[in-house]
Amino acid sequence: MTVDAQRRPRFADPGFWLGSLRVEGRALMAPMVGYNEAPLRRICRRFGSALAVTEMIKPEKLLRDDPQLLRGLCFGPDERPLGAQLALREPSLLVPAAERVVEFGFDFVDLNLGCPLKKECRRGWGAALLREPERAQALISAVVEAVPCPVSVKVRAGYELGERQGAEVARRAVDAGAALVCVHGRTKMGWYREPNDPAAIRDVVRAVEGRVPVVGNGDVVSLESAVALFAETGCDAVMIGRGAVGNPWLFRRIDLYLRSGEVLPEPAFDEVRALYREHLDQLEEAFGARRGFSQGKRYAYYYFGRFGLDNRTRARIAGARRRAELEDVLDALAGA
User: Fold this and answer.
1) I want to staple 196 with a disulfide (CB 3.0 to 4.6 A). Which of 218, 238, 272, 316 is the partner?
2) Count of helices and strands (H, E) across the chain
């Protein structure tokens, strides 16, 4: 697939403002449960993601000073601007949690009104709030009034297949003081099986009427799909989740193309392998050799999937118990 130069967005400004916070680019990493630890955030920022966000933080754990959670909230200057994502439906807990993450030094607070997980929705969190727009607006307003930093909001197109509450909730979010809205073009019940719907994102763009930036999310896995989402929705930026895991070069390719029209080539095997080794090193430093290696093995499928991993190679990666065994697998892949 080639990039259609006629569809290239022409932004007068290569970045945008998230309230008072300057964001120097229009390709952003998405918060992903189980993935957004500090090593991945640092790598994505270095490769062009204009900001980073933690995975969803459970306020009740934060407020009781859960040691594992607090360790996960440590970050360095190379991750900034960095937001902390929260999800809850009770302002009596959500507001103090937002105030707490500000004390930790996060640059903005991101409120999750889009999480599709059954466990969270049963508690009335995440995407469940799409069906309660008045409560959602009150929650957002309470957090905006309580913290000195910008507040962003993440929504989905709707709850059930065919429902489209996202635009109304986005409009209410901006009325409540949100400085940015990100919308995933799928419904909660559509999970990741439903095709991403650019029209649902376009509806949010129209609903907020240019008052704040709107970020489009869903199925951005390449430069071509990013350009298409800009063209079909009129969004101000794109947010990339699974498409950037093991492929942080995607941020750099999108950013350069938006600025100059230049298309960077895809990385070669040796470049991918070097970054993967660095990622493994950082994971082992952060979590210890055993847990870091286990976490790092699953990233191997993302980094090297572009080189055609057959079932035998996948099985060898899964079965590797030490770095040396994993390196042997990569040696064989390099020579294939």
Assistant:
1) 218
2) 14, 10
Pairing of strands 16-18, 21-23: antiparallel
Closest CA to 237 of 288, 161, 183, 297: 183
Per-residue pLDDT tens for 284-303? 999 999 999 999 999 999 99
From 85, 40, 32, select the one nearest 287 (Cα to Cα): 40
Token pair recorded at residue 170: 């986005």
Handedness of CA 108, 225, 188, 216 (dihedral sign): positive
| Nearest Cα residue to 317 out of 329, 308, 307 | 329
SS3 193: coil
| Catalytic-role residue among 44, 115, 121, 149 | 115
Q: What is the DSSP track for 73-92? A: T---GGG-SEEEEE--S-HH
Whether 121 sits among the annotated catalytic residues: the reply is: no
